[in-house]
Design goal:
Layout (H helix, E strand, L loop, with lengths): L1 H7 L1 H9 L2 E5 L2 E10 L5 E12 L5 E3 L3 E5 L17 E2 L15 E4 L11 H20 L25 H5 L3 H4 L6 E5 L3 H11 L5 E5 L6 H4 L15 H9 L6 E4 L16 E4 L4 H14 L3 E10 L4 E10 L4 H6 L20 H18 L11 E5 L4 E5 L6
Parallel strand pairs: 8-9, 8-11, 9-10, 11-12
Antiparallel strand pairs: 1-2, 2-3, 3-4, 3-5, 5-7, 6-7, 12-13, 13-14, 14-15
Helix pairs in contact: 1-2, 2-3, 6-11
Length: 399
């Protein structure tokens, strides 16, 4: 991967040719072997880290004029901190492969004339000049940053086929890593399930399995994300969404299949399930299966009716933890019978409600993983469409 980046970015190629010990990690350039002086004028070795802003999968440009430094404060020959570096205490989470590079601070020196650096080569050379020159003055070639050291290329194990640079720019890579071992199953790829799939495809979970036995018709196009290609009508939902998202990530397996009590093998290894079906009887059988396999899951539902010549109703998100799933079921929050009076059963076109229901479900999952903050545990969420108010329920019925 690193060599591929170097072949498409001349500034990176120039850094390598100059002799810098450069590697790529967590959508950042990491430049090791940067000598500097500490407050006792002793030589220390640090590293510079630079965030990258990807244009496409192989070309990048500068994120801004700042760099990040793994090391203590660099000092000048007079024993004082080097001026014009600015910056502040700062950390950036790199992967385990770069555990030797512990970022402690940022530096901020914007070129006065142009307001920005020409490219990464110009940027690194400028900062290295500030940081390393005093050390070279005292220690000569022993302090040169041009070591020509070949840093072992790190394995690119991301599940995304395009670089997720915004996660690293926002410095929440440690939070996104909380999903890396998850194997998610989505049962039902209809209105709400299709949006759950769309959100999870862009979440760095290890694997996504999806199941739906129906075909894709015109009404599905009105209640699911993405484009409509007329040639897709009549095809299976699973095949359409597999093709639609295959170019985005790996670890995606969608099947045209009905999940029931005989589907235990399909859920082996699954760490979390989203149940997105609108048939109460089918839902009851799925709940039996998931509780028997002790898999935590979220079930979604929606009830609509006409009120004062408008649509009203509720949407529900219910979390079944592995250790208290039956107690949640005993509360009766989830409808396990057919409700023929529910207008939602008529394939009504309310894509925004499907998307909102899916959002509540995925947000709840991400709270459970510690990505989003959770004030207190809860199991059932109801959103009143008329007032847009929510009610959370946390009490369990153990009968």
């Amino acid at each position: 991967m690193f060599q591929k980046l170097a072949s498409h970015n001349n500034d990176l190629h120039r850094l390598i040719d100059k002799g810098y010990a450069v590697t790529f990690d967590s959508n950042c350039l990491v430049i090791r072997d940067i000598s500097y002086l500490d407050d006792k004028l002793e030589k220390q070795i640090g590293s510079i880290v630079v965030k990258l802003k990807f244009i496409d999968n192989v070309r990048f440009e500068q994120d801004d004029h700042q760099v990040y430094f793994a090391g203590s404060i660099p000092h000048n020959l007079d024993g004082k901190p080097i001026p014009n570096l600015g910056g502040r205490a700062h950390t950036i989470g790199l992967s385990e492969a770069c555990s030797d590079v512990v970022v402690q601070r940022s530096f901020s020196n914007k070129p006065k004339a142009a307001g920005k650096y020409d490219d990464h080569f110009h940027k690194i050379e400028t900062y290295v000049g500030f940081i390393t020159s005093p050390a070279i003055h005292l220690y000569g070639e022993d302090a040169s940053p041009y070591t020509y050291r070949k840093v072992k290329e790190m394995t690119d194990d991301t599940i995304f086929k395009f670089h997720d640079t915004l996660t690293s720019r926002a410095e929440i890579t440690d939070l996104s890593n909380k999903f890396k071992d998850d194997v998610i199953a989505i049962i039902g790829l209809g209105g709400t399930g299709a949006y759950v799939l769309d959100y999870l495809v862009k979440t760095p979970v290890h694997e996504i399995r999806g199941y739906d036995h129906d075909q894709y018709y015109v009404h599905n196009a009105y209640r699911s994300p993405g484009r409509l290609d007329e040639s897709e009508l009549g095809m299976s939902k699973a095949d359409i969404y597999q093709t639609r998202y295959d170019n985005f990530r790996t670890g995606l397996s969608l099947e045209t299949k009905f999940i029931d009590s005989s589907s235990a093998d399909d859920l082996d290894g699954v760490t979390f399930v989203f149940v997105c079906v609108d048939n109460g009887i089918a839902r009851a059988e799925i709940l039996d299966l998931l509780l028997e396999k002790n898999i935590p899951f979220i079930d979604v539902g929606m009830g609509l009716k006409r009120k004062d010549n408008a649509l009203s109703g509720m949407m529900r998100t219910t979390y079944f933890p592995a250790d208290h799933g039956q107690e949640v079921r005993n509360n009766g929050w989830v409808n396990e019978q057919e409700d023929m009076d529910n207008i939602y059963k008529t394939n009504i076109q309310i894509g925004e409600l499907n998307a909102l229901n899916a959002s509540l479900a995925v947000i709840r999952f991400k709270q459970l993983r510690g990505f989003y903050y959770e004030e207190e545990p809860y199991f059932n969420t109801l959103l009143n469409i008329g007032s847009l108010s929510t009610m959370r329920e946390s009490c369990l019925n153990e009968d």
